[in-house]
C-alpha cells in the first residue's frame, strides 16, 4: 500500500495548489477541460448527438424495407434528389445508411458514449482519486473522438455518397474505389475517421488502466472495487489488445485503395476487365476485422454489465450476489472474447476442423455470461426493490441479455449457423444481446448518475414513460426478426419484392418498422428530459440513492480534485446493504468497521 499512500499525500498537496492558482475561463472549463467529470459530460453529449443520427438512419431504412419503391417526402427532404430521386430511396443510399448506422452505433455511441462517459466519470470518483492519471491525455482522447465523429458526419455529404460496404467494410467493395459509388471518397473518409477513433480509444484505455492500478485511495484493494470499476478496467485492457489489429487492417486497406498494394485483393474482374491485383485475400481482412470485431461486442457490453450490477445492488438494498464470481466471469469473458472471432466466418470457406474449434470456444463463453445473469437474478431475489427508471432499465438489460444471448448458442454452432448466416436472425441476435442491452445499460447509468454529473434529478415520470415504450418497441422490432430470419430473409437487401418466396413476410416487416418508428420517436421524451433537467431539474441531495460507493461522498458542487479536504479512506467493500447491526440499510465504504463487525465474504 505504501505507493498508494504516498500518491495519496502527494495528490492532496496537488489538489490544494490547484485551487489557489488559476481561475477557469469558459474555454478551459467547458471546451479544453482536463477535469474527468467535464470530459465525461463531453463524451455523453457527443454520444447522444451521434445516437440521434444513428437511430434516425435506422428509421429511414426501415421505411424503405417496409414500403419498398414508395415515394416519401421525408426522403426527399433529408436525402435530396441525388440519393432519393422523387422521394424513392436508391439501393446505393440504402447500403450507405445501414453502413453508417452500424458504424455510428457500435463505435461512436456504444463504445465511446458508454465507456468514455462512465469510465471517465466513475473511475476516479469510485477509487478515491483526484482525477485520471493524465488529465491532458484524457482531454486529447476526447478531442480525437470528437474529430473522428466530425469526419464520419462529413463523409455523409461527399458527392459520390458515404461508405456503403456494410459496417464490416469487407473488400473488395471497400478496397476498389471504382466498385460502387460508395467506395470512393466516402470510404476513404470512413477509414480516416476510424483511424482517429482508434487513437482516441487507445489513449483513453491506457489512462483508465493506469488510473485503476496506481491511484486507488488508502484501503481500496482490488477486491473492494465496485464492479463498475472492474468492468471498465477489463474493457480498457480488451481495447488495448484488440483495437490495434483493426488499425492495421484499416491501414492496409488504405494502402490497397490508394497505393497499389494487394493485401486483400486477388484475381479481380470488373465489368469484364482484368484488374492488376495478385496474391491478396479478402478473407485475411475478415480475420483482422473480426479479431477486433468480436472483442468489440464485449467492449460494448461489459461497461453496461458493470453499471447494471451496481444499480441492481443499490436498488435491491442488498449486497450483489457472488462478487468474486462476477469478477472471475469478467476475466473469463475478456480472455475468451479474443479466441472466438472465427464464428463470424463459418461460411468463408474455413476448414471444418477450425470451425469446430471456434464453435467450442464460442459455446464456452456462454458459461461466464450465464454466471452474470444468474447472479443478477439472485441479487433481485427477495430484495427490497426500488423501482426507479434506472432500476427498470437495469432489469430490462438482464432480460434482453438473456433473450438475445440464447440465440447466440445457435449462431455459435457452425452446423446451425450456416442455415441462418446473413439473415435477419443474426440481426435479431446481436441487436438484442449487445445493441439494446448496452443501450439499456447506458440509459440506466444516465438515470442513476445524472445527479452526480449535473447536480439535478431527472424527471421520474418521464423516465417511466421512456422505459415502457422503449421496452415494448425494442422487443416489437427484434423479436419478429428471428422468425423472418429463420424463413430465410437475407439482411442488407433494400427490397425483397423480386422474390415471390418472401411475399408473405412483407407484413411482418411493416409491423417491425411501425415499432421502430414509434420507439425512435419516443426517444424524444428522453432527450427532452435530459436537456431540460440539466437546467431546470430538481436539485439533488448529496446521496440520492443511499448508495455505498465513494462518488456519493464527494460534494455535489463539482471541484477539480473531487474532495475538498482529505480523500476518504476505504474500510469495507462496496456492497454493505441491509447489514445487521447498523441503523441504516446502507454503510458507505468510508465508514470504519465497528468492533466485532464481521466482514461479509464476497
Automatic annotation (TrEMBL):
Assigned protein family: Belongs to the heme-copper respiratory oxidase family.
One example GO MF annotation: cytochrome-c oxidase activity
Region (Disordered): 1-20
GO cellular component: membrane
Amino acid composition bias (Basic and acidic residues), ranges on this chain: 8-20
Domain Cytochrome oxidase subunit I profile, chain residue ranges per copy: 26-553
Gene3D superfamilies: Cytochrome c oxidase-like, subunit I domain (1.20.210.10)
Any one Pfam family match given in the protein's UniProt record, by short name: COX1
Segments crossing the lipid bilayer: 43-61, 94-123, 135-158, 189-215, 227-255, 297-313, 325-347, 353-378, 390-412, 424-450, 462-485, 505-531
Subcellular location: Membrane
Signal peptide (residue range): none
SUPFAM superfamilies documented for this protein: Cytochrome c oxidase subunit I-like (SSF81442)
GO aspect biological process, one term: respiratory electron transport chain
Protein name: Cbb3-type cytochrome c oxidase subunit I
Topology versus the membrane: Multi-pass membrane protein
Keyword annotations: Electron transport, Heme, Iron, Membrane, Metal-binding, Respiratory chain, Transmembrane, Transmembrane helix, Transport
Amino acid at each position: 500500500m505504501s505507493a498508494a499512500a504516498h500518491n495519496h499525500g502527494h495528490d492532496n498537496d496537488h489538489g490544494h495548489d490547484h485551487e489557489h492558482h488559476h481561475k477557469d475561463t469558459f474555454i478551459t472549463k467547458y471546451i479544453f477541460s482536463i477535469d474527468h467529470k467535464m470530459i465525461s459530460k463531453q463524451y455523453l453529449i457527443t454520444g447522444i448527438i451521434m445516437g440521434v443520427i444513428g437511430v434516425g438512419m435506422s428509421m429511414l431504412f426501415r421505411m424503405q424495407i417496409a414500403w419498398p419503391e414508395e415515394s416519401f417526402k421525408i426522403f426527399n427532404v433529408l436525402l435530396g434528389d441525388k440519393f432519393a430521386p422523387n422521394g424513392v430511396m436508391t439501393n446505393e443510399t440504402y447500403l450507405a445508411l445501414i453502413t453508417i448506422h452500424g458504424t455510428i452505433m457500435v463505435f461512436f455511441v456504444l463504445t465511446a458514449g458508454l465507456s468514455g462517459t462512465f469510465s471517465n466519470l466513475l473511475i476516479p470518483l469510485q477509487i478515491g482519486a483526484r482525477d485520471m492519471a493524465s488529465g491532458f491525455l484524457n482531454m486529447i482522447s476526447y478531442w480525437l473522438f470528437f474529430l473522428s465523429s466530425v469526419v464520419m458526419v462529413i463523409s455523409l455529404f461527399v458527392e459520390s455518397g458515404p461508405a456503403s460496404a456494410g459496417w464490416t467494410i469487407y473488400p473488395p467493395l471497400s478496397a476498389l474505389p471504382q466498385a460502387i459509388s460508395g467506395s470512393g471518397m466516402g470510404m476513404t473518409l470512413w477509414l480516416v475517421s476510424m483511424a482517429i477513433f482508434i487513437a482516441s480509444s487507445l489513449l483513453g484505455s491506457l489512462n483508465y488502466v493506469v488510473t485503476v492500478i496506481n491511484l486507488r485511495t488508502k484501503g481500496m484493494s482490488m477486491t473492494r472495487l465496485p464492479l463498475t470499476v472492474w468492468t471498465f478496467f477489463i474493457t480498457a485492457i480488451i481495447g488495448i489488445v484488440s483495437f490495434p489489429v483493426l488499425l492495421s487492417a484499416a491501414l492496409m486497406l488504405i494502402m490497397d485503395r490508394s497505393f497499389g498494394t494487394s493485401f486483400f485483393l486477388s484475381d479481380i474482374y470488373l465489368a469484364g476487365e482484368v484488374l492488376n491485383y495478385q496474391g491478396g485475400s479478402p478473407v485475411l481482412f475478415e480475420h483482422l476485422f473480426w479479431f477486433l470485431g468480436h472483442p468489440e461486442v464485449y467492449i460494448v457490453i461489459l461497461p453496461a454489465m458493470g453499471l447494471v450490477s451496481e444499480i441492481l445492488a443499490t436498488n435491491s438494498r442488498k449486497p450483489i450476489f457472488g462478487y468474486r464470481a462476477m469478477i472471475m466471469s469478467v476475466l473469463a469473458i475478456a480472455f475468451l472474447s479474443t479466441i472466438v472471432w472465427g464464428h463470424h466466418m463459418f461460411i468463408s470457406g474455413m476448414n471444418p476442423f477450425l470451425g469446430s474449434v471456434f464453435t467450442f470456444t464460442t459455446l464456452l463463453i456462454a458459461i461466464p455470461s450465464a454466471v452474470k445473469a444468474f447472479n443478477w437474478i439472485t441479487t433481485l431475489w427477495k430484495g427490497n426493490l426500488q423501482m426507479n427508471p434506472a432500476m427498470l432499465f437495469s432489469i430490462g438489460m438482464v432480460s434482453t441479455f438473456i433473450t438475445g444471448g440464447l440465440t447466440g448458442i445457435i449462431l455459435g454452432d457452425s452446423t446451425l449457423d450456416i442455415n441462418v448466416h446473413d439473415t435477419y436472425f443474426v440481426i435479431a441476435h446481436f441487436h438484442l444481446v449487445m445493441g439494446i442491452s448496452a443501450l439499456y445499460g447506458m440509459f440506466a447509468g444516465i438515470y442513476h448518475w445524472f445527479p452526480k454529473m449535473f447536480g439535478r434529478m431527472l424527471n421520474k415520470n418521464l423516465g417511466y414513460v421512456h422505459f415502457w415504450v422503449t421496452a415494448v418497441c425494442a422487443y416489437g422490432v427484434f423479436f419478429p426478426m428471428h422468425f423472418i430470419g429463420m424463413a430465410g430473409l437475407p439482411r442488407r437487401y433494400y427490397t425483397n419484392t423480386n422474390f415471390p418466396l418472401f411475399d408473405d413476410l412483407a407484413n411482418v416487416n411493416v409491423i417491425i418498422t411501425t415499432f421502430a418508428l414509434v420507439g425512435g420517436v419516443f426517444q424524444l421524451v428522453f432527450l427532452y428530459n435530459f436537456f431540460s433537467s440539466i437546467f431546470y431539474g430538481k436539485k439533488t441531495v448529496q446521496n440520492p440513492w443511499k448508495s455505498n460507493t465513494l462518488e456519493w461522498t464527494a460534494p455535489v458542487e463539482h471541484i477539480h480534485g473531487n474532495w475538498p479536504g482529505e480523500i476518504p479512506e476505504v474500510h469495507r467493500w462496496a456492497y454493505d446493504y441491509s447489514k445487521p447491526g447498523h441503523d441504516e440499510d446502507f454503510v458507505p465504504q468510508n465508514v470504519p468497521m465497528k468492533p466485532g463487525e464481521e466482514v461479509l465474504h464476497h
